Amino acid sequence: MDASPLAVVAPLLEARKNLPGGLLPLLHDIQDALGYVPPAAVPLIATALNLSRAEVHGVVSYYHHFRQVPAGRHVLRICRAEACQAVGADGLIAQAQAALGCGWHATTADGAVTLEPVFCLGQCAVGPNLLVDEDELHARVTPAAFDRLLEGLREPS
Ligand code: FES
Fold this sequence. Notes:
CATH architecture of the largest domain: 3-Layer(aba) Sandwich
Bound molecules: FE2/S2 (inorganic) cluster
Oligomer: single chain
């Protein structure tokens, strides 16, 4: 780990180290600040919170919310909940995984896209739906629309 992530983690550790039940809030703080929880931070967290490395690693790896490597340039979240499934989400997911060459919680080899599942985006009447990054909702996504979207996401920023 280079000095920069450590420099970010250190004050967050300091702020949470004496708070009971501080592990999850600390992990959220680190992920919010860096976009992931660097594996090299695990022993520092363990020491600060008087936990074992295994305990910290167990929590980081149990919750898919916590990344252990940085995400791609874009995060693509495809809705897997019932209403979207009823209108073709499974086909869209298969298309996405084949086109991206990766499964859930993984990133394309070119670093362009990280694929994540989501369970309802609140737009159940207009599925299948997906979300790009934090706020770009796409509804009624057809195979052709997905191909066009992916082309845009793969363009270097
Ligand atoms: S089920 Fe997909 S948006 Fe609600």
